[in-house]
Amino acid sequence: MQVKELMSKNVITVTRSTTLKALLTMFIKFHIFPLVPVVDEQGHLAGIVSFQNLLNVFRPYNPELLKAVPFLDEEGEDNIFHIDLTEEVGNLVLVEDIMEQKIVSLREDMSIEEAFNLMKMHLKEEFPVVDKNNTLVGMIGVFDIIREVFHQKGVI
Amino acid sequence: MNTVLGLGFILLAGFFLAKLLGKIKFPSVTAYLLLGILIGPSVGSFLPSDLLNASALISNIVLGVIAFGIGQNFSLQNFSRIGKSVLWISVLEATGAWIFVTVAFLLILHQPFYIALVFGAIASATAPAATVMVIREFRSKGNFTDTLLGVVAIDDAWCLIIFAVSLAVAQAIYNHMLAGFFLFKVFSASLLTILGAFVLGAIVAALLSSLSKFLRSQAELLILTIGFVFLTIGLALRFHLSVLLSNMFFGAVLINIDKTPLKFFESLKTIDPPLFLLFFVLAGANLEISILPKLGLIGITYLISRVLGKMCGAGVGAHFARAQRNIKKYLGLALIPQAGVALGCALIAKNDFPDVGNMIFTTIIATTVIYEIIGPLCTKYALHKAGDVALQSSSP
User: Fold this and answer.
1) What are residue A139's phi and psi, to 5 degrees?
2) Fewer beta carbons below 10 Å: N end or C end of chain B?
3) Domain that holds residue A62
């Protein structure tokens, strides 16, 4: 079975220019901030935003930049309760400033076994799915796959 | 003290000393180095000799791991993203320090060319830990900070290239001092070291990438990645190629040819911290305090010419990239800290040039301690002058 047969095709996406305020409002009814794909005008996958990236707003710089630097002291979680943010931050910070660009995405024609394996390997619970032109076509999560396996075994 | 007890002591004492010095805003690296000096043969002599003798082994492993990680910088995507200013400034500040220190050692200290060249190459490295710590502390933000972070992030990659080239030339001069066809031999030996490292790195990267489809778990991923990093280090040593360059090319090729290369680099990060701690403690322990008094002029020349080289290089780079005036003027001053990569290079030089190695290593370790103390102060000054220090405070 291929990823495209199980993935959700209705995906909430944002663009690079979406403001932080708009992003936070979009998911106001959610208890958990999902993995949000960022797409360009042509629908190509440009990055993702996770709750970890939201925390970047509290940091003076984007930690992505220093990923390859050796000997850096592990960044102590900034105490978000003690950092002052102004009202303008909501409009000044854009998705482009906090999104992660180095991401793993799955091809729609990949088998679900391979997708499950990649989830284990990368310790991630969901992935964006793209076609051969890197256009976002859906999202697939670990529960989609587990549920399908239960279904195939006749449990549901 | 037996070896395992020594290892346990180093890890725990390193942990607590880093916490303690962290309170007064010193990076962990400085704490580990000081611990090494304190327990090493020059001061406390607590360190089991087995561990001290394993310094070369551990530094080769750690340097291989670091160089592999630094290779990530060479993804095509990264180059298209970092921008002209960062590229120009980082290349020229590294080259500036290299040239200034080499020339100062030749003209002021009248040292042989190969020694001057090695010192120059080591001077090109910068330690991001202290710089990043200052940026975090002041929550500085702006164009200056962004450029500074970009420069410290890629700087070590240039240092590894400069060091590998310089070392190859220095070794060729050292070994063929009296031989004929002098220039030709120096040139061919250097070229061979670099080309060989590239070929080795590329082959290993292609192998790891093709084997990665058999991976089924995080544990297997870690085993395979470490296995290949060790294989590259071992083969580089076996064929007298640069360990640093071979592993950097390994990482650089891997990041460009594999579909999901980040997993390899991420997996290694889980084993890095204790290895790095051990590396710095052993580096500190290798310091020979008795040589220190003889190094006065060498140390001062190195300290000053490196800073001048960084400042001039960064200024010229910023000029070429048409960067803002504050970047031209102050960025070099923020690049003074020196630590891990410089120490690693100095350890290699120590092993490669037995008669002058101790002098090189002791100078670098002593200047590292000084730079780690004055470097953050200079970075703070530069950030203030550049106007990037935020007005709001993050203090609780």
Assistant:
1) -135, 145
2) C
3) 3-152
* Distance between B23 CA and the closest CA of chain A, angstroms: 13
Does the pLDDT at position B284 exceed 80?
A: yes
pLDDT at residue B272 greater than cutoff 60: yes
CATH (domain of A83): 3.10.580.10
Closest-CA residue of chain B to A70: B66
Give the gap in angstroms from C-alpha A125 to the nearest C-alpha of chain B.
Answer: 15
**Full set of structural domains in chain B with CATH:** 66-271+293-386 (1.20.1530)
Q: Could you tell me if B260 lies within 8 Å of chain A, comparing CB atoms?
A: yes
B chain contacts of residue A89, beta-carbon cutoff 8 Å: none
What is the model's pLDDT at position A76?
54
Q: Do B263 and A122 touch (CB under 8 A)?
A: yes
B contacts of A61 (beta carbons < 8 Å): 135, 141, 145-146, 149
- pLDDT the model gives residue B392: 44
User: What value does the mean pLDDT of chain B take?
Assistant: 86
Residues of chain A in contact with residue B273, where contact means CB-CB under 8 angstroms, are 74
The residues near B63 (Cβ < 8 Å, ≥ 6 apart) are B243, B244, B247, B344, B347, B348
Residue A136, φ and ψ in degrees, nearest 5 = -70, 125
Q: Do A60 and B396 touch (CB under 8 A)?
A: no
Whether the ipTM is more than 0.85: the answer is no
Q: How many CB pairs under 8 A join A and B?
A: 93
User: Is the Cβ pair A68, B153 closer than 8 Å?
Assistant: yes
pLDDT at A13: 94
Kindly provide the residue ranges of all beta strands, DSSP E only, lying in chain B, ordered along the sequence. Answer: none
DSSP per position, chain A: -BHHHHSBS----B-TT-BHHHHHHHTTT-SS---EEEE-TT-BEEEEE-HHHHHGGGSSS-GGGGTT-TTPPPPPPP-TTS----TTHHHH-BHHHH-B-S---EETTSBHHHHHHHHHHHT-SEEEEE-TT-BEEEEEEHHHHHHHHHHHTT--
pLDDT band for B128, please (50, 70, 90 cuts): confident
pLDDT averaged over 10-residue windows placed end to end, chain A, 156 residues: 92 94 92 92 93 83 70 64 83 90 88 90 89 93 94 92
Q: What is the pTM of this model?
A: 0.83
Please answer yes or no on whether B395 and A61 come within 8 Å at the CB atom: no
What pLDDT is stored for residue B263 in this prediction?
Answer: 85
- Low-confidence winner among B66-80, B104-118, B305-319 (lowest mean pLDDT): B66-80
Determine whether the interchain pair B128/A72 forms a contact, defined as Cβ–Cβ distance below 8 Å: yes
